[in-house]
Amino acid sequence: MIDESNPAGRLHKILAEVRNQNDKAPVKKAWATVLGIEENDVLVTKSVVELYSLSQEIQSLIKMNEGLNHELYLSSFAQIERAFFPLNLGTQWSTVKPHLTPEALTRLQFCAEELSRFYSEESLSEEDLKDIIQKTEELFESLYKSNLPEALRLSLLEEVERIRNAINLYKIKGAKGLKEALQGTLGAVVSNQEELKEASKTDKDVIKRLGELIEKMDSFASKALKIKKALASPVKFMTELLTKDEESAEIET
After folding, report:
1. Is 92 strand, coil or helix?
2. Residue 163 in contact with residue 136, Cβ under 8 Å?
3. Which domain of life is it from (predicted)?
4. Domain ranges of the chain
5. Which residues contact 44 (CB under 8 A, 6 or more apart)?
6. Helix 204-224 and helix 126-145, axial crossing angle in degrees, nearest 10
7. Of 31, 40, 89, 235, whose Cβ has the fewest other Cβ atoms within 10 Å?
8. Is the model's pTM score more than 0.85?
9. pLDDT digits (tens, 9 = 90+) for 31-57
10. In angstroms, rounded to a whole number, what is the distance separating the alpha carbons of residues 45 and 34?
């Protein structure tokens, strides 16, 4: 059984699935179907670029092990990458499929087996993924309807879009992509602390939903990558914003 919890395993799964797409299907449809994304030129192109980056990452990881026969493990990557570029979204899949030979996929499988010795991560369940998507969309709606200062609102909307991209690319980048998006969001929270404190007085729903999304992503990323949770202070900061006014109200009454 192929270990799909590392970069080579993820790439193998994607390429094995896309190889079986209908020969007459447009390249755009083939990639979109397997990656679970919309048939959008920009989104598909971006995703294929990420597949190329994943291929490069695998090669770098294999080269880190000096005891391996690098030529044996990596000789098919140039061929695999010809399935990515040149990218002609309107041509038939039959023009791309020949680059994904059984031999090339077998070598990729060997890479996955080797990487499994030191690299693994837990997969995001469908339920968890749906929960993150729901929390992301709820935050977007809350931001869209909010009365936040325009600069702060745009900054947070950019973070929502970053998280959306990480979700779209989850099949490719795994938990690492969500972790990177989380780090960006935490950075935005820290750099906008004063503005968020003010916002908590009038747009508490935004603060609440932002805190919930951060907590959900932080919990998953730390579990999947087997690392400590991100610095708790930004998450704690969000929670304190929600309780401060309530505590003050209780004291007054």
Report:
1. strand
2. yes
3. Bacteria
4. 7-115, 126-246
5. 28, 31, 32, 35, 37, 89
6. 150
7. 40
8. no
9. 999 999 999 999 999 999 999 999 999
10. 14
